[in-house]
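Our consortium's second objective concerns turning raw sequence data into structural hypotheses that experimental partners can test. To show how far this objective has progressed, the report includes one record in full. It was chosen at random from the queue rather than selected for favorable results. The single chain below, 139 residues long, was entered without modification.
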Amino acid sequence: MTEQTPQPPAPADMPATPAAAVPPPIGAPEKPSQLQVLGVLTLVSGIINCIIGILWVFTIIWMLPAAYSVVLGILEIIYATKLMANPVRTDRIAKHIAIMQIINIVNGALLAVVVGILALVWTNEPKVKDYLTAVGRKG
């Protein structure tokens, strides 16, 4: 009697693995925690800036700053979703958004100022720059 080697299961017999359970590819650089925290803070700041802009739009004097705050909020939300993806879906840091966040002190958005300063500081760290460079080469 010859012993038969077991055959691997057919693809139809294999259970489906949810996409969230799939680990990142081997050799992929680890995402720095600063980018994840920055993504969450930017998302929260974007939502708050949209609310501030909508509240200011009801006054006549603050019409232009209100538009600035809403536009900044939308840009922040879009950028935050790119930062929170794994791996990030951008290969460069949007310094213009960080500068816009700091300027938004005019509307009283103190969280945006703090997030803008943190973004400029954290994105200049070598670990973050190396990660974005590696992601940019692969994508």
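The partners drew two points from this record. Residues 32-138 form one domain. The mean pLDDT is 83. Both points have been shared with the crystallography group to help prioritize constructs.
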